[in-house]
């Protein structure tokens, strides 16, 4: 890189203020008028800000409620009454809720929480460990057993057994129900086009709708607690099973299906002897995705009082106790790794079973005997742990949970004190240099000016359809009465997305250009992606204390893996021939990147930005827990404070509207590029 | 006259949303392109009729997209016909309910596919026995039958392998054994060897010839390769755009192509390898000096060449009953061979 000094400065103008900030890369050259239009909009906007600052901003003081929120509060009260009187609420929903809660309570009594009379659960840690280890052995192999055993021992050592197992109970139940419903649904969808056409959009919505959008309504219907947690988790975890099952059955070689039909198979024979065995591996991949989704969502449901480690994280975050949050967060990460590896190993085994030609070491008979024998051992251990305290109660002396917590607190203090200069500097640069001006620009102008800016930017970038979507979403935000807070959240989201994309492009370009970088970075990103969003708040909180910036850091941490991968794939997608041609005219590396690879990877970049944005938005909400303020705060507060229910609900609607609006603008902008 | 093994009568297949409604309308008179432009329907097979005699090898040939695969699938209703009838041993397939149809597929007709369509999660022996399993035969019976078939196609020793451990040619042998296992009356092949290397393809063609001699099944064989068609076919049906262009024996197709499409197809064929004396003999000129030798009219020219050239004067060509159909001399033979040289 020799001629880079001048070129390196070239992208700098992009960093200017205003809406051009992140939209610029999208529109660079297809339509030369767009930058001009955006510049005009920005100029009007800044001018309006200078003249009309602080007027008609629609800001609503913290405790104040508007008519809509009061109405929501009334609805909430009324539903509370209905739960006593109304047949549907009392009998139908009531019984479902009671049933789920009973199942969870029974499992807790058996595995995690001592029932009143006993000092330990019916099955102690040794038994639980043995049983889960055996399950891992049966579905995935002995390596997974080791992983499971180590994870559960660490639960004991970290003194998070009860909540760790509770998290696994919620996750496990949700996965079971997801598979029980999703698998037949996927098969049905694969067989009937009509069924598929009907359910596909529903599954899409279930999977992409931000969880906070349905957290509040479901809490209303199911009441807070395990039942609500499981229903919410189900909504998010079921789609992967159904869709991947459908996809897997469609993926079965057409000629094999035809050959089987030519032999006169019945539909049932085709399904059982041909399609399911051949689709098995892919279906297990679907179960892997379902499990990770379930774990992530089960953690978040701590907000509606779902049992498990999520609760510990929330409490610790709210008490600003980084050490405790770290311990609980580690438990979640351990659970994530354990579930991911075990289900992955299960899918590999399914692969081997599908093409048994190579791999399998044991004869089926031997394996059956082995499974039987180990099952007996596990049951004996379970029985021992029911009878004897030594097998049921982990010795207090052998736990280090609180020690770890205080070490981490000490270490955090040390780091914060020692590197305060650096962390404060970074925090202040972003806060004062980017976040404050932008938030002021977004929220401190008259609402109609900001609305006009949003609409004109949408129209410029995405045309009429983006304009329509923005108008609808804008009207919804206005209707919730949270315009001011929404604009603050929007500004924060944009800042976090820009930072995410900076990281993603730097890393993604490196990965896309170098196979070796990819080989090193990708597994790390994969691991990052298995970690539930909650956990990212912990390190951010440790370094930056409770602030808006903390939420932004957590958002970037959560969003950059997916964005980076998409960028890397986009860069790799640029054809080798084009690159060769470029090299042949003597471009520098930097020129190749900026003039060829990045522009040509544009669809990948847009997709990455879009995904990054949705991820960031989901953190911005739980960022309310660590002082991010704005909408996220209300969402979180709405679950704990009766009188803020309506405001929290309204905030959830506003956040969803923001998400949909940004998503549509980007999508239509991308479509216009084609 | 014996009952044909297979009778296809004015069979149609139109792909598209409202294909059934088109039957009997003038739209079906339109060419493929016109119909596609007008209503989005594609004609797969257009008004095809033919009979196949028991034990005959009937080859369907045409360029890719001419409707061969569709035609062969219509016969067992892997694709539902739009109209027309198919009679198998006099039984109307097109009128059958699902159960009866399944029974036909299990017992009477088997098929071999271009891409094999094997079950990757089953051993060779279980792939071969799959059809028997599907129709409910017990394990011992289907094992022994499958083993017989494995031996028949020369795969002994590979019974416990999985398909992905075999070469393409061997996989197709598994497909062949699977088709034979149910002991069907009719075997159907859809371009079974197109995915194979030329050398393997020749082996497999010989294999089919051998099997035909051994088991004597009726065969419907789809190919786009004229050499294959000529080598295997008792009769050849040539298709274009879903329609029959010509049906005839190999020498009829080569000697008297129905139109330019067929002529183009056969132009590369070494005629002396296919044509018989019948195609080159001429009436005897009165007073001509004819040798004593006679040759049957069905003799391939290449095989007759030596005898004709050695003979003193023209040779007499006789039919099956010993009646003279004409004579050939050196020049008649050389004309065919030289024309070949020139076109090559
Ligand atoms: N399911 C289908 N839907 C629509 N058109 C089809 C379908 N299957 C085949 N066709 C069309 O029918 C024609 C004949 O196809 P096919 O029978 O596969 O030809 P061949 O086997 O001779 O190559 C082709 O033009 C093909 O595009
Ligand atoms: Mg074909």
Folded structure, characterized:
The complex is a heterodimer of chains A (674) and B (344). Chain A is mostly helical and 674 residues long. Chain A folds into two domains: 37-68 and 406-673, MetI-like fold; 86-399, MetI-like (MetI-like fold). Helix content of chain A is 80%, strand content 0%. Chain A contains 28 helices and no strands. In chain A, helix 8 runs antiparallel to helix 9, helix 19 (447-480) packs across helix 28 (645-673) and helix 21 (515-530) packs across helix 23. The longest helix of chain A is centred in the middle third of the chain and has 34 residues, at 267-300. By secondary structure, chain B is an alpha/beta fold. Chain B folds into two domains: 54-74 and 96-269, P-loop containing nucleotide triphosphate hydrolases (Rossmann fold, 3-Layer(aba) Sandwich); 272-343, CBS domain Like, CATH 3.90.1280.20. Chain B has helices at 19-22, 32-39, 68-75, 98-107, 124-128, 130-134, 139-152, 168-181, 198-215, 226-232, 250-255, 260-266, 271-274, 301-310, 330-343; strands at 6-15, 42-52, 57-61, 83-88, 91-92, 109-112, 186-190, 218-223, 235-240, 243-248, 294-296, 315-318, 324-328. In chain B, a hairpin with a 2-residue loop joins strand 4 (83-88) and strand 5. In chain B, helix 7 (139-152) crosses helix 8 (168-181). Chain B is globular. The relative contact order of chain B is 0.11. The mean pLDDT of chain B is 88. At the A-B interface, helix 12 and helix 13 of A face helix 4, strand 6 and helix 6 of B. Chain B: It holds the Pfam family ABC_tran. Chain B: One of its GO terms (biological process) is glycine betaine transport. Chain B: This is Putative glycine betaine ABC transport system ATP-binding protein. Chain B: Residues 30-266 form the ABC transporter domain. Chain B: Belongs to the ABC transporter superfamily. Chain A: Residues 1-20 have a biased composition (Low complexity).
């Amino acid at each position: 890189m020799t001629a880079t000094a001048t070129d390196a400065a070239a992208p700098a103008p992009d960093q200017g203020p205003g809406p051009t900030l992140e939209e610029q890369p999208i529109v660079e050259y297809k339509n030369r008028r767009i930058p001009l239009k955006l510049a005009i909009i920005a100029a009007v906007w800044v001018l309006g800000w200078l003249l009309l600052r602080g007027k008609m901003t629609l800001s609503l003081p913290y405790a104040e409620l508007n008519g809509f929120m009061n109405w929501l509060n009334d609805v909430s009260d009324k539903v509370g009454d209905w739960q006593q009187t109304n047949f549907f609420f009392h009998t139908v929903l009531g019984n479902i809720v009671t049933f789920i809660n009973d199942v969870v309570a029974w499992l807790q009594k058996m595995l995690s929480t001592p029932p009143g009379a006993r000092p330990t659960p019916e099955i102690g840690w040794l038994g639980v460990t043995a049983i889960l280890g055996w399950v891992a052995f049966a579905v995935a192999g002995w390596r997974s057993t080791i992983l499971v055993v180590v994870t559960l021992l660490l639960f004991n050592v970290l003194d998070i057994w009860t909540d760790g197992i509770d998290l696994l109970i919620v996750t496990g139940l949700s996965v079971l129900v997801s598979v029980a419903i999703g698998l037949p649904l996927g098969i049905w969808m694969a067989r009937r086009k009509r069924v598929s056409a009907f359910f596909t959009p529903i599954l899409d919505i279930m999977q992409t709708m931000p969880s906070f959008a349905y957290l509040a309504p479901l809490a209303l219907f199911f009441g807070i607690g395990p039942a609500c947690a499981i229903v919410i988790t189900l909504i998010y975890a079921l789609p992967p099973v159904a869709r991947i099952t459908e996809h897997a059955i469609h993926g079965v070689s057409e000629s094999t299906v035809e050959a089987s039909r030519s032999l006169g198979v019945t539909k049932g024979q085709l399904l059982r002897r041909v399609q399911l065995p051949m689709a098995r591996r892919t279906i297990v991949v679907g179960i892997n995705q379902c499990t990770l989704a379930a774990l992530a969502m089960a953690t978040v449901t701590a907000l509606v009082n779902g049992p498990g480690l999520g609760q510990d994280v929330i409490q610790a975050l709210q008490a600003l106790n980084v050490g405790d949050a770290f311990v609980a967060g580690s438990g979640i990460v351990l659970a994530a790794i354990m579930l991911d590896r075990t289900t992955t190993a299960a899918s590999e085994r399914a692969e081997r079973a599908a093409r048994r030609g190579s791999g399998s070491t044991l004869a089926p008979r031997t394996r059956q005997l082995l499974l039987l024998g180990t099952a007996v051992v596990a049951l004996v251990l379970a029985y021992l742990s029911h009878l004897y305290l030594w097998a049921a109660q982990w010795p207090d002396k052998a736990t280090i949970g609180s020690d770890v917590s205080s070490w981490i607190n000490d270490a955090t203090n040390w780091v914060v004190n020692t590197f305060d200069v650096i962390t404060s500097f970074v925090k202040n640069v972003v806060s004062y240099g980017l976040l404050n001006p932008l938030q002021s620009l977004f929220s401190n102008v008259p609402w109609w000016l900001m609305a006009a800016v949003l609409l004109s930017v949408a129209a410029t970038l995405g045309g009429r359809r983006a304009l329509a979507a923005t108008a609808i979403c804008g009207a919804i935000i206005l209707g919730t009465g949270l315009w001011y807070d929404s604009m603050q959240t929007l500004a924060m989201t944009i800042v976090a997305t820009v930072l995410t994309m900076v990281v993603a492009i730097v890393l993604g370009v490196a990965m896309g250009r170098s196979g070796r970088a990819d080989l090193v970075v990708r597994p790390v990103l994969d691991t990052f992606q298995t970690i539930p969003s909650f956990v990212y708040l912990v390190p951010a909180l440790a370094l930056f204390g409770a602030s808006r910036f903390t939420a932004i850091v957590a958002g970037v941490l959560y969003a950059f893996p997916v964005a980076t991968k998409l960028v890397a794939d986009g860069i790799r997608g640029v054809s080798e021939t084009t690159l060769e041609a470029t090299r042949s005219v003597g471009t520098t590396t930097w020129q190749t990147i900026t003039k060829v690879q990045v522009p040509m990877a544009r669809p990948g970049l847009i997709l990455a930005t879009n995904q990054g944005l949705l991820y960031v938005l989901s953190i911005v909400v739980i960022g309310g827990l660590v002082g991010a303020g704005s909408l996220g705060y209300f969402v979180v507060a709405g679950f704990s404070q009766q009188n803020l229910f309506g405001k929290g609900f309204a905030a959830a609607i506003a956040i969803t509207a923001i998400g949909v609006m940004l998503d549509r603008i980007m999508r239509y902008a991308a479509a216009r590029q084609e | 006259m014996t009952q044909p093994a297979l009778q296809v009568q004015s069979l149609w297949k139109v792909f598209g949303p409202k294909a059934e409604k088109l039957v009997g309308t003038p739209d079906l008179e339109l060419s493929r392109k016109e119909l596609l432009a007008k209503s989005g329907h594609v004609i797969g097979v257009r008004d095809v009729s033919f009979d196949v005699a028991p034990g005959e090898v009937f080859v369907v040939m045409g360029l890719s997209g001419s409707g061969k695969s569709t035609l062969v699938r219509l016969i067992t209703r892997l694709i539902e016909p739009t109209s027309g009838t198919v009679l198998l041993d006099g039984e109307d397939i097109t009128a059958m309910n699902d159960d009866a149809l399944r029974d036909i597929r299990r017992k009477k007709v088997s098929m071999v596919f271009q891409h094999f369509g094997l079950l990757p999660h089953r051993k060779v022996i279980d792939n071969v026995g799959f059809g028997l399993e599907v129709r409910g035969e017990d394990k011992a019976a289907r094992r022994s039958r499958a083993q017989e078939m494995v031996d028949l196609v020369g795969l002994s020793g590979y019974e416990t392998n999985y398909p992905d451990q075999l070469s393409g040619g061997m996989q197709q042998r598994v497909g062949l054994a699977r088709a034979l296992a149910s002991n069907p009356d009719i075997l159907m092949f859809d371009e079974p060897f197109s995915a194979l290397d030329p050398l393997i393809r020749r082996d497999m063609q010989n294999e089919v010839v051998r099997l035909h001699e051994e088991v004597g099944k009726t065969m419907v064989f789809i190919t786009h390769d004229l050499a294959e068609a000529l080598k295997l076919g008792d009769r050849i049906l040539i298709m274009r755009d879903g329609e029959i262009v010509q049906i005839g024996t190999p020498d009829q197709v080569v000697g008297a192509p129905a139109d330019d499409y067929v002529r183009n197809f056969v132009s590369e064929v070494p005629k002396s390898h296919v044509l018989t004396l019948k195609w080159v003999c001429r009436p005897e000129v009165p007073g001509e000096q004819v040798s004593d030798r006679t040759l049957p009219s069905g003799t391939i020219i290449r095989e007759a060449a030596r005898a004709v050239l050695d003979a003193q004067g023209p040779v007499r060509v006789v039919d099956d009953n010993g009646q003279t159909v004409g004579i050939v001399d050196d020049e008649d033979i050389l004309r065919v061979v030289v024309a070949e040289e020139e076109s090559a």
